[in-house]
Amino acid sequence: MPTFDEIKLALNTCMTAEPTIDFMLSKDASQLETVFAEMMYFKQIERPLESLSHKQVSAYLHWTALAPKIPSV
């Protein structure tokens, strides 16, 4: 179940590697931004992976694998 912080980290990693061009997000950044915005709007701390679209899951898994690890608390 992706947490808000994991989505945020994946999005930041993606945006660093694929910055906006002419104010347009990359395809992966757009998918992650949608999840990020929905989680903010609904004040969700985590979201079931099954609730994400195939493209959102793909982007999340790809950029989470490349992101620095979040220390456990």
What's this model, at a glance?
Helices cover 58% and strands 0% of the residues.
Structural summary, described in words:
The chain is mainly α and 73 residues long. The mean pLDDT is 94. The protein contains 3 helices and no strands. Helices cover 58% and strands 0% of the residues. Helix 1 packs across helix 3 (54-66) and helix 2 (27-41) packs across helix 3. It is globular.
Order of helical and strand elements: HHH
Multimerization state: single chain
Distance between the termini: 17 Å
Radius of gyration: 12 Å
Features of the shown structure:
3 helices; mainly alpha; single chain; globular; 73 residues
Write the layout of secondary structure elements.
Elements lengths: L3 H14 L9 H15 L12 H13 L7
Helix pairs in contact: 1-2, 1-3, 2-3
